[in-house]
């Protein structure tokens, strides 16, 4: 399957921005089963690309500076990616980060009382660790229904579980925290998903991957209740959202920002 992506992120500033830098993790990972067919382009208005580098998780990163005093910043990504059916299996661990790193908690994914209780409620009657991971995915969605506007980018797993709903970022974080608590390396994934019922979207997607002996990494889309297939484009991975955020940065100045995201993913 070939998917085309047209993704725009538009920041409008209501005051003077003296200095700002943004890290963009918006370039899909090349791997068996996922190949960029035509050049993936990242265009910037209201700023300039300073450099491109590969981070410690193997993510392609563009560093963008915002023009001093610019009223807006527009980031536009386009490209075409060819994917094959992989049923969530990524395979053997690769890259600079040792596997044990993915057992390490982060401030967003530190397992507390609620995550430990969630894991304990799974029980032990499973034919395999993979079956238990799928059961965990279903339990998370049952415990925390998908609901926007309740959490934000800084919500921890314990805060999310104390609330009444969450989004894909929360689901992925909780799965990662619980799998690490159960002894499995786990990581956060950001990327694109072609939805069957719509072309226009207002955000990228997030899911999780866990590592199993003799198989390697396997993906779990907790929010949709299945493993990723050929409709999913993997863009960035990390210990949590902060490692894999599509756009993340800092700025100096008193200006507030208004963010509008337009995204199309289609075959």
TrEMBL record:
Gene Ontology MF terms in the entry: peptidase activity
UniProt-listed Gene3D superfamilies: 3.10.620.30
Residues annotated as domain Transglutaminase-like: 160-224
InterPro entries per UniProt: Bac_transglu_N (IPR013589), Papain-like_cys_pep_sf (IPR038765), Transglutaminase-like (IPR002931)
Keywords, in A-Z order: Hydrolase, Protease
GO process annotations (BP): proteolysis
Name the UniProt record assigns to this protein: Transglutaminase-like putative cysteine protease
Organism from which the protein derives: Sphingopyxis panaciterrulae
Taxon lineage: Bacteria, Pseudomonadati, Pseudomonadota, Alphaproteobacteria, Sphingomonadales
